[in-house]
Amino acid sequence: MPRILLQFICAITFYLLANLGQVKAQSYQNEWIKYGLTYFKFKISQDGLYRIDQPTLARLGLSQVPVAQFSLWRNGIEIPLYTSTQTGLLSTDGYLEFWGESNDGVADQVLYNSPDHQLNGRWSLFTDSATYFLTADPSVAHPRLLPVANVIPPGSIPVPYFIHTQDIFFKERINEGLAVVAGSYIYSSAFDPGEGWTSSDLYNSQVRSLDYRNLQPALSGNIPTPKIKLNIAGNAPNNRVVVVKANNLELRNQSVQQFSTARWEMDVPVSQLSNGELQITVSPQQAVSSDRIVIALATLQYARRFHFGGQQQFQFSLPASSTGQYLEIEGVQLSGAPPLLLDLTNGQRYQTILTTQGKVAVYLQPGSQARKLVLVAAASASMVTTLATRNFIDYSQPSLQGDYLIISHPALERTTSGVPVLEQYRDFRTTVAGGSYRAQLYFIDQLEDQFAYGIKRHPSAVRNFIHWTRRQYSFPIKAVLLLGKGVLYTAE
Questions:
Q1: CA distances in angstroms from 89 to 81, 317, 426, listed in the order given
Q2: DSSP codes, 299-316
């Protein structure tokens, strides 16, 4: 083993014993990749409307790609694109347009032993930036946001309300979940119940107020009962009672034991929303003054009028409908022109119109599925101008398979005597003195993109890759060596 290697390697070796159980059938998160295609990678950290214009595509060498071939992916799902022309090539003022979303905690859920252990799925434990991959694929048809004529039949009656969810997702601290108290709090390396983004600690008898404002509720007619969903976790080795109130009306008075979690759903009388606001209070009650809990999320679900509270963009949903639906929307911040309405479920893009009363009007075509909708101003679109080329390495090729997997970072690829030291160590492991392994070297940036949807520092990159190699490689994996710096995932 080269001596210089010891100067910068922090190594963790673990052996995958032959008697381990077979890996269950699962997604390895690389199923969406077509090896041989060139992908262009970029990141988005805020929800919004985005465009990639023709000059940017031309710089990438994509100016001669027919618009029908463009394909955009995020988290293994193809994202519907709107193209400024539906056929042929983009003109010099043309563009690709899509609704982009920041990273969330959905991809983290697989890290827990049970999905219920994750109390807050809105925020990622690793990064707010979602990774997108653009490519040109002529082999199949791709989902599109197609322009739909906004023709309002005479006498159309507006839909009176929709079921809206207004969420409070806490991101004040990362709660470490279940602890064993042995002089100090000791936490396991697993992702335990209650681990994740939460509120700060709420101590005994303290009251945390959760304020919902600008609700624009529907208060009359055959409307469903509003509901509050609350996810909390104990954060000390005590039993306590947690009291939940809505505008001083008690909704729940229930025990939460030690480090256990609770997912509560409570009805709220519609009268409590009559002034357009709602205050939910949460308070733990216990004799031990140092006792504490944390709140992960609180969601209010209620019937809302089509009034969007002065926002420039607004996400909402509607149930499936076998007939068209006419919407008249108030309280929209206009940017000089009527906004767009995107039906992300059915791949439709509507140009709304303004009524004489200044309302935004649109007539939706029938849809067989519940619709995910976004009202957004076209003028608010952000430009994506920086994309990095990514050519994925097909590790299933026989020449890249091994039984001793070395996973490291390109930053450690230093050289000594003209030879990269990581390759020297790999070569050493193939010798008799090194164990006569079929040693192979893999870099984490490729694994993150291929096996963790490009989510930086996500543990799935290594775990999915190892599981995948055990299924794909033609001989058993004997060892995996991680070369790098070990850090807590909470570290910046």
A1: 15, 34, 47
A2: EEEEEE-SEEEEESSEEE
